[in-house]
Structure formats: structure tokens, C-alpha cells
Specification:
The chain contains two helices and 14 strands; from the N terminus they run βαβββββββββββαββ. The chain has helices at residues 8-13, 173-181, and strands at 4-6, 35-42, 57-58, 64-65, 76-77, 83-93, 104-114, 116-117, 131-142, 146-149, 153-158, 167-172, 191-201, 207-211. The protein starts with a strand and ends in a 5-residue tail after the last strand.
Amino acid sequence: MKKIVISAVAVAALGFYASSASAQCAFDEPAKAKGLKVSMIKAMSSCPGVTFPSPNTTTMAGVAACAPPTPLSLYQFEDLKGSCSVKTTHKVEAPCSDGSPEDCSNLQLSVKCGGVLDSDGISPNNQSGWNLNTVARASFNDNANGDMTVIDFPAQFAMPAADGGKLKGKFTTNQLLFDLFGPGSSLPRCTAIELITVKIADPSGGLFATIGTSGR
């Protein structure tokens, strides 16, 4: 069983079970939004933040800034070869893959990284202890109480150990809710999920990668 960690508040927020279908689902969403695939980049300290209590420089246009850029993890990307990406796929399952007879929504998150180096910047990483950290906001047609938006909930998914600098993992909301509540606890058919943050944490707990873009 995959290790899944979720806060007590999140457990309380997600404590619902599927029952008979409701005729609501009146909140506005696009007709199709099946998923996304995005790059991830090194997570940097904010400005100002813990590293820099106040800005110490400015851009050529006079915008306050902090120098130098300070990563939140000692682990590194290999030059020219390092990369990370995350992909999501949202499917309506009829019947639900968790074994219940009700239709459900199932969100899969797939993470893939390559060229991840130890803190020495030389050795390919082979450690365990990597995690995918997410914060999500779900709006759905609850079978008992109708349309609602659940409070933001954080979850942590344990990734398999790195292998020669490569990381990968696949996780689903069905598995998350099944592990927490058992069969019949999946998200309803009518569900929209906002991904507030998606980050990869290194074995020491530092934030290694976050959704973003870069160019050189």
C-alpha cells in the first residue's frame, strides 16, 4: 500500500461517502478539462522570505529583488539533462474503479524526473524519502448536501526511491480516499479540482521542485 499522509483537517473535510445521485451540479465549469501536463523547476526562496528578510537589490527597472537566488533544497538538477514534469488526468468512471456501483471522478497524478543529483552536485541520487506534496480545492455535487466547495486540503504521497537520478510515481484520488475511508468514498461524478500547489520534497523535507517554466 502506498504511504499517504494527509492532515486531520483534510480528513474531516473529505469525510463523505457516495450514495444516490443528485440532480444538482449547477456550478459553472467548462465542458471539458480532462487534465494537464506541465514542467517543474527548482523551488526558490521568496523575496522577502526566510532567507532574505528584506530585498537587498533591484532590477534594472527598479523593482525590489533579492540576490542571489536561493533554492529551497540542496539537491540539484544535472546540467542540460535534469528535468521534472507532472501530468494529471481526470476521468469519470462508470462504474467506479474502487469497486462501488456508483459513478465517480478519479484524478491521477503522474510525476517523472531525471538527472537529479545529490547535494554534492555530482552523484546521481538513489535515495528514498522523496514525496509529492499537493494542496487541492475540490468543488462537487455532494450526494447528501448538494453543490459545495471543500476547504483546501493538503496531501503527501510517498514516491518510490530514486534510481540513478530518476524519480517517478503515479497516484490517484480513488486510492487516496479508499485508504482513508474504504470502498464507496470516491469523489462524485460531478467534481472539479483546482490544484493550488504541486511540489516535490526531497528526503530532508526541503522543497526541490515546483510547477513552472525556465529558459537559458
